[in-house]
Amino acid sequence: MAWFKRTEKGIQTATEDKKDVPKGLWYKSPTGKIVDADELARNLYVSPEDGFHVRIGSKEYFEILFDNNEYTELDKNMTSKDTLHFVDTKKYSDRLKDAQEKTKLKDAVRTGVGKSKGKDIVVCCMDFAFIGGSMGAVVGEKIARGIDYSIKNKIPFVMISKSGGARMMEAAYSLMQLAKTSAKLAQLADAKIPYISLCTDPTTGGTTASYAMLGDINISEPGALIGFAGPRVVKDTTGKDLPEGFQTAEFVLEHGFLDFIAARKELKNKINLYLDLILDQPIR
């Protein structure tokens, strides 16, 4: 039987016979470049034609930084609680449950311990997919415990930020994490253990106002949005037009808030080069 039939209104295809192209086979970058999804994955989720860095999560960053993707995850089952019984358009407890089911994550940060180019390293990495990478009590606690692990074992600490800022559903509990993580980083500095902060797209709000800008070196991926308040808020507050490229990694680097920008393919080598230099080890 024919897969289509002609009617007075034209050709119609029965629903069960439609041959939809599976989703996710192609990716279109903001500049309009089209890339095969498999090729994009092989290229570490960087568009090969225009160099656009697609947002990725902790899973992908761990694959990039840890040798053979081998690491031990710390505090992997720690989850947030709805202490304030917060409700906006829905209950915070329901938001947490939905986010956990959708992302298969427990919260917006994961901590891995493993080797990178043969050196022991602790990596805390945020996941924007989990409620916008918002910083709640669990995020602050896991970062603090990751720093404690670095201090106890005398190994470098890497923080990968990707966040919209404080988690409003936890109110003051969220804001306390700025001071908590900053105090822990002061202890890390006192122990003379290296801290590398990697800002990815986006790094904003309370994250920028605390641990994201406190690294011994602060680095970023190309084109990442880095700032405190969003561009619209800044423009409305100042009443002035913003400079071209405002709050991009390149703009922030030019104004002295970053040490350098590294493409994703260079991250592992660049981080380890810095560690080799500061720890007075042979450069690999």
From TrEMBL:
- The CoA carboxyltransferase N-terminal domain is annotated at 24-284
Gene3D superfamilies associated with the record: 2-enoyl-CoA Hydratase, Chain A, domain 1
Record keywords: ATP-binding, Cytoplasm, Fatty acid biosynthesis, Fatty acid metabolism, Ligase, Lipid biosynthesis, Lipid metabolism, Nucleotide-binding, Transferase
Main EC class the enzyme belongs to = transferase
Listed GO CC annotations:
acetyl-CoA carboxylase complex
**What GO molecular function terms would the record report?**
acetyl-CoA carboxylase activity; ATP binding; carboxyl- or carbamoyltransferase activity
Q: What is its EC number?
A: 2.1.3.15
Q: Which InterPro entries match?
A: AcCoA_carboxyl_beta (IPR034733), Acetyl_CoA_COase_Trfase_b_su (IPR000438), ClpP/crotonase-like_dom_sf (IPR029045), COA_CT_N (IPR011762)
Biological pathway: Lipid metabolism; malonyl-CoA biosynthesis; malonyl-CoA from acetyl-CoA: step 1/1
Reaction catalysed by this enzyme: N(6)-carboxybiotinyl-L-lysyl-[protein] + acetyl-CoA = N(6)-biotinyl-L-lysyl-[protein] + malonyl-CoA
Compartments it resides in = Cytoplasm
Q: Which PROSITE patterns match?
A: COA_CT_NTER
GO-annotated biological processes: fatty acid biosynthetic process; malonyl-CoA biosynthetic process
Q: Which domain of life is it from?
A: Bacteria
Taken from the record, one Pfam family name reads Carboxyl_trans
Q: What does this protein do?
A: Component of the acetyl coenzyme A carboxylase (ACC) complex. Biotin carboxylase (BC) catalyzes the carboxylation of biotin on its carrier protein (BCCP) and then the CO(2) group is transferred by the transcarboxylase to acetyl-CoA to form malonyl-CoA.
Classification via NCBIfam families: accD
Quaternary data: Acetyl-CoA carboxylase is a heterohexamer composed of biotin carboxyl carrier protein (AccB), biotin carboxylase (AccC) and two subunits each of ACCase subunit alpha (AccA) and ACCase subunit beta (AccD).
Q: Tell me the protein family, please.
A: Belongs to the AccD/PCCB family.
Q: Name it.
A: Acetyl-coenzyme A carboxylase carboxyl transferase subunit beta
**Organism annotation:** Flavobacterium agri
Q: Which gene encodes it?
A: accD
